[in-house]
Amino acid sequence: MAEKKYDLEERTYEFARNVAHFSKKLPKNTVNFKYVDQVIRSSGSVGANYIEANESLSKKDFAMRVKICRKEAKESAYWLRLIVDTNPNEFSKEGGALKNEAEELKKIFSAIINKSN
Q1: Mind giving me the DSSP string for 18-74?
Q2: Which domains are delineated in the chain?
Q3: Which residues have C-beta within 8 Å of that of residue 53, sequence separation ≥ 6?
Q4: What are 7-55's pLDDT values in tens digits?
């Protein structure tokens, strides 16, 4: 079980890191500044809250933290969708892949929540 925990911690870290690297490539404009700020926050919160969940003191606390992870992954997918839809096509492939990863993480956290109930 510990190996799976580590894999998801690493996966959420890589997601946040990849979002940050992608964000640096985007054109510098007023809209992107706002959207990038939001997606950087939400993508980083996914992993940070998962680490908190793994250190939780109770099952209830664990479930709450994982629900926050799911919420932040869903929010990240939203911001990434907006970024892809409001930028040149050259960013569609990488941005779309990151949006898909956010959606996959959301599904993983949903499955964890369902199993913990």
Answers
A1: HHHHHHHHS--SHHHHHHHHHHHHHHHHHHHHHHHHHT-SSHHHHHHHHHHHHHHHH
A2: 2-116 (1.20.1440.60)
A3: 61, 62, 65, 66, 69
A4: 999 999 999 999 999 999 999 999 999 999 999 999 999 999 999 999 9
